[in-house]
Design a protein that fits this description.
6 helices; 91% helix; mainly alpha; 210 residues
Length: 210
């Protein structure tokens, strides 16, 4: 009987050991996956900056503003562009910092905290970009409608025709909404997928009791 009790204790000890090893392996796997996800967030954000930078070379508004005799607007648009770059680069720095923290941490609590912080940072980043897209759309429509001499005829017509004004504003609103919808879907598909995976890792970590 005494020998049986000893065997039971030994079996229980080995069972706990196997469970601990299993949990350790799970942690390592989650740690690796989380690090990879944040690395992709960092890479995508950098590629996004490069894409918009290259796009600016092909779709410059400077020539158009000079053509419509409103070159003074160039300064303000460049100011907005530089401000946007600074903000986006700050976000990229935060992504890099999160990646380094998640890659090197050996603490479950710190990993969980870093995952939540990264998710929040990405969400702020997405909302900031959507806000800038709204602002850019408003500025573009305003410049095209108010400052472009080619729009004089349309402005005069709209000023005397309330129905035409209503239809035009409605069309512009729908086009802008569609553009923002595409933009939002892009971010939701790209960053949303990564954030969902990251949150899944977070929930798995909560189940591990070291």
């Amino acid at each position: 009987m005494k020998e049986l009790d000893l065997l039971k204790k030994d079996w229980k000890k080995n069972s706990d050991s196997f469970e601990q090893i299993s949990e350790t392996e799970i942690y390592k796997m989650i740690h690796k996956k989380s690090s990879s996800i944040v690395k992709w967030i960092l890479i995508i954000s950098i590629l996004e900056i490069l894409f918009w930078t290259v796009s600016n070379f092909f779709f410059s508004t400077d020539e158009m503003l000079i053509k419509i005799n409103h070159a003074e607007m160039i300064f303000y648009l460049e100011l907005l562009t530089y401000f946007n770059y600074v903000v986006v680069l700050i976000f990229v720095y935060f992504f890099y910092k999160s990646y380094k923290t998640i890659s090197t941490t050996g603490s479950t609590k710190l990993l969980m905290s870093s995952i939540l912080k990264t998710r929040k940072t990405v969400q702020y980043y997405v909302w900031y970009n959507l806000g800038m897209a709204v602002l850019s759309s408003i500025i573009s429509v305003f410049i095209a409608f108010v400052y472009n001499p080619e729009m004089d005829f349309l402005r005069d017509k709209l000023a005397t025709n309330g129905k035409a004004m209503f239809i035009t504003v409605g069309i512009l609103f729908l086009v802008t909404l569609a553009f923002l919808g595409i933009f939002w879907c892009f971010y939701r598909l790209l960053y949303g997928t990564l954030l969902r995976r990251l949150y899944t890792n977070y929930k798995e970590l909560k189940k591990i009791d070291f």
